[in-house]
Amino acid sequence: MFDDQLLEDFAQNFYGYGNYKADYWFIGMEEGGGNSVTDISSRLNAWIKRGRRELENLAGYHAEFGISNLFGPNHKLQSTWGKLIRVLLSAKGPLPTIDEVRKYQGLHLGRSSGDTCLLELLPLPSPSTNNWLYGQHSQLPYLTNRETYKQMFITLRIALLKDRIIEHGPKVVIFYSHSLSNTLARDCRYWPYIRKDHYEWNDCIRGDKTSSSPRYHERIFSSFR
Fold first, then answer.
1. Distance of CA 185 to CAs 128, 172, 182, Å?
2. Which strands, in side-by-side order, build the sheet including 172-175?
3. N or C: which end of the chain has fewer CB within 10 A?
4. Mean pLDDT over each residue of the chain, to the nearest integer
5. pTM of this prediction?
6. CA–CA gap between residue 212 and residue 43 (Å, rounded)
């Protein structure tokens, strides 16, 4: 079973990685991972050990719960992060090479003093929308199933994310969802509530099947240059 007090503290106070002062923010539905009770508990304990931060350092936090192969020399390129990095580097200059994307992930993405902020609408890691470990291993009533969980957190998180955007005024906010999810359309409906009237909406920014193409990422940022 999970430590429910710790799980609730994490769910209410952890929002993602990087730097609120960054120019480029990425907001997704929820973080991947959390494939087992052991994995989730390791993440929670690492968060406690590092000071219960609202925003973590991506590399430091992952190293704390045992994931080091995504950072440092010869590291693995994480698929979702790689797409976000392509978008970012395409905004800053020529189309990036795979080595440039890998280097950015290893050294810069989601760092506490860097130029990116990675946030999630929902707080708890999960490997897919069809996977829900929390109901079996927690006694918190709102974690009984995914729907009660969403009802508990979506309105609260929309309000906080909107407040953070107003407070810090990032140059660009990119919302993304996974194209293979059957809930893509439902995911995308939340983004305008966070954006509200503070940013111009560019509807081509979505995780469709072309988003793995470098040319697509260049096109996404054409309206911001």
1. 16, 22, 8
2. 55-56, 16-18, 116-120, 24-28, 172-175
3. C
4. 86
5. 0.87
6. 28
